[in-house]
Amino acid sequence: MERFLILLAIVLASVAVCVAGRYRFPIKEGSRADHFFERLQLAGNVVAIGVELLLPAVTGFLGQPLLAYAAAILQVFAVSIFRVQLPPIRAVRPGTAAQHSVGEPELRRTRWPYQTAFALGYVLLLAYVASIFGMYF
User: Fold this and answer.
1) What is the mean pLDDT of residues 124-137?
2) Confidence of residue 46 (pLDDT cuts 50, 70, 90)
3) Confidence (pTM)
4) Which is it for the CA torsion 127, 123, 52, 74, positive or negative?
5) Cβ neighbourhood burial of 100 (10 Å; 0-12, 13-18, 19+)
6) Using alpha carbons only, how large is the chain's radius of gyration in Å?
7) DSSP single-letter state for residue 24
8) Where are the beta strands (DSSP E) in the chain?
9) What gap in Å lies between CA 53 and CA 74, rounded to an integer?
Protein backbone atom coordinates (compact mmCIF):
# COMPACT_ATOMS: atom_id res chain seq x y z
CA MET A 1 0.00 0.00 0.00
CA GLU A 2 2.83 2.39 0.85
CA ARG A 3 4.52 1.88 -2.50
CA PHE A 4 1.25 2.39 -4.36
CA LEU A 5 0.56 5.69 -2.58
CA ILE A 6 4.13 6.90 -3.14
CA LEU A 7 3.90 6.12 -6.85
CA LEU A 8 0.43 7.68 -7.02
CA ALA A 9 1.79 10.87 -5.45
CA ILE A 10 4.55 11.03 -8.07
CA VAL A 11 2.07 10.40 -10.90
CA LEU A 12 -0.34 13.05 -9.59
CA ALA A 13 2.43 15.64 -9.41
CA SER A 14 3.57 14.72 -12.93
CA VAL A 15 0.08 14.98 -14.37
CA ALA A 16 -0.42 18.32 -12.61
CA VAL A 17 2.73 19.68 -14.24
CA CYS A 18 1.62 18.45 -17.67
CA VAL A 19 -1.91 19.84 -17.33
CA ALA A 20 -0.69 23.14 -15.90
CA GLY A 21 1.47 23.53 -18.99
CA ARG A 22 -1.56 23.30 -21.29
CA TYR A 23 -1.20 26.97 -22.22
CA ARG A 24 1.65 25.83 -24.46
CA PHE A 25 -0.80 23.74 -26.49
CA PRO A 26 -2.94 25.37 -29.18
CA ILE A 27 -5.99 25.34 -26.88
CA LYS A 28 -8.23 28.37 -26.87
CA GLU A 29 -8.96 29.75 -23.42
CA GLY A 30 -12.54 28.96 -22.43
CA SER A 31 -12.94 26.15 -24.97
CA ARG A 32 -14.26 22.69 -24.13
CA ALA A 33 -10.73 21.28 -24.11
CA ASP A 34 -9.62 24.03 -21.72
CA HIS A 35 -12.51 23.24 -19.37
CA PHE A 36 -11.68 19.52 -19.58
CA PHE A 37 -8.08 20.18 -18.49
CA GLU A 38 -9.29 22.48 -15.68
CA ARG A 39 -11.57 19.74 -14.36
CA LEU A 40 -8.84 17.13 -14.73
CA GLN A 41 -6.49 19.32 -12.72
CA LEU A 42 -9.13 19.94 -10.06
CA ALA A 43 -9.90 16.20 -9.80
CA GLY A 44 -6.19 15.48 -9.43
CA ASN A 45 -5.99 18.00 -6.61
CA VAL A 46 -8.90 16.35 -4.80
CA VAL A 47 -7.25 12.92 -5.14
CA ALA A 48 -3.95 14.44 -3.95
CA ILE A 49 -5.66 15.62 -0.75
CA GLY A 50 -6.54 12.01 0.07
CA VAL A 51 -3.03 10.81 -0.73
CA GLU A 52 -1.48 13.56 1.39
CA LEU A 53 -3.65 12.65 4.35
CA LEU A 54 -3.24 8.87 4.03
CA LEU A 55 0.44 8.57 3.17
CA PRO A 56 1.92 9.59 6.57
CA ALA A 57 -0.43 7.28 8.47
CA VAL A 58 0.21 4.33 6.15
CA THR A 59 3.98 4.77 6.34
CA GLY A 60 3.98 4.92 10.14
CA PHE A 61 4.78 8.64 10.20
CA LEU A 62 8.26 8.11 8.80
CA GLY A 63 10.14 11.02 7.27
CA GLN A 64 8.63 14.47 7.72
CA PRO A 65 4.84 13.98 7.91
CA LEU A 66 4.28 17.69 8.53
CA LEU A 67 5.22 18.26 4.90
CA ALA A 68 2.38 16.01 3.75
CA TYR A 69 -0.13 17.66 6.07
CA ALA A 70 0.98 21.15 4.99
CA ALA A 71 0.57 19.99 1.38
CA ALA A 72 -2.97 18.79 2.17
CA ILE A 73 -3.82 22.16 3.72
CA LEU A 74 -2.54 23.96 0.63
CA GLN A 75 -4.51 21.63 -1.66
CA VAL A 76 -7.72 22.15 0.32
CA PHE A 77 -7.13 25.89 0.15
CA ALA A 78 -6.49 25.66 -3.61
CA VAL A 79 -9.66 23.68 -4.26
CA SER A 80 -11.70 26.11 -2.17
CA ILE A 81 -10.48 29.16 -4.13
CA PHE A 82 -10.63 27.52 -7.56
CA ARG A 83 -13.12 30.04 -8.98
CA VAL A 84 -11.19 33.14 -7.81
CA GLN A 85 -9.64 35.03 -10.71
CA LEU A 86 -7.36 38.01 -10.17
CA PRO A 87 -5.23 40.16 -12.45
CA PRO A 88 -1.64 38.94 -12.66
CA ILE A 89 0.91 40.44 -10.31
CA ARG A 90 3.25 42.75 -12.24
CA ALA A 91 6.16 44.94 -11.29
CA VAL A 92 4.74 47.72 -13.48
CA ARG A 93 0.97 48.13 -13.81
CA PRO A 94 -0.26 48.28 -17.39
CA GLY A 95 -1.47 51.68 -18.46
CA THR A 96 -5.22 52.07 -18.71
CA ALA A 97 -5.39 55.68 -19.84
CA ALA A 98 -3.55 55.65 -23.19
CA GLN A 99 -5.30 55.65 -26.55
CA HIS A 100 -4.84 51.92 -27.34
CA SER A 101 -5.01 50.55 -23.82
CA VAL A 102 -7.91 48.70 -22.22
CA GLY A 103 -9.78 49.70 -19.11
CA GLU A 104 -9.17 48.15 -15.70
CA PRO A 105 -12.17 45.75 -15.92
CA GLU A 106 -11.00 44.38 -19.29
CA LEU A 107 -7.53 43.36 -18.07
CA ARG A 108 -6.96 39.61 -18.31
CA ARG A 109 -7.66 37.78 -15.07
CA THR A 110 -6.15 34.40 -14.17
CA ARG A 111 -6.40 31.77 -11.45
CA TRP A 112 -2.90 32.44 -10.17
CA PRO A 113 -3.84 32.13 -6.45
CA TYR A 114 -5.25 28.65 -7.09
CA GLN A 115 -2.31 27.65 -9.28
CA THR A 116 0.22 28.93 -6.75
CA ALA A 117 -1.44 27.12 -3.83
CA PHE A 118 -1.72 23.76 -5.55
CA ALA A 119 1.81 23.99 -7.00
CA LEU A 120 3.23 24.63 -3.53
CA GLY A 121 1.14 21.71 -2.26
CA TYR A 122 2.67 19.40 -4.84
CA VAL A 123 6.18 20.65 -4.03
CA LEU A 124 5.62 19.83 -0.36
CA LEU A 125 4.13 16.44 -1.26
CA LEU A 126 7.16 15.59 -3.38
CA ALA A 127 9.46 16.76 -0.58
CA TYR A 128 7.69 14.35 1.77
CA VAL A 129 7.88 11.53 -0.76
CA ALA A 130 11.62 12.24 -1.17
CA SER A 131 12.06 11.93 2.60
CA ILE A 132 10.57 8.40 2.64
CA PHE A 133 11.38 7.13 -0.85
CA GLY A 134 14.60 5.38 0.14
CA MET A 135 12.85 3.40 2.85
CA TYR A 136 10.46 1.73 0.39
CA PHE A 137 12.41 1.44 -2.87
Assistant:
1) 96
2) very high
3) 0.83
4) positive
5) exposed
6) 18
7) G
8) none
9) 12
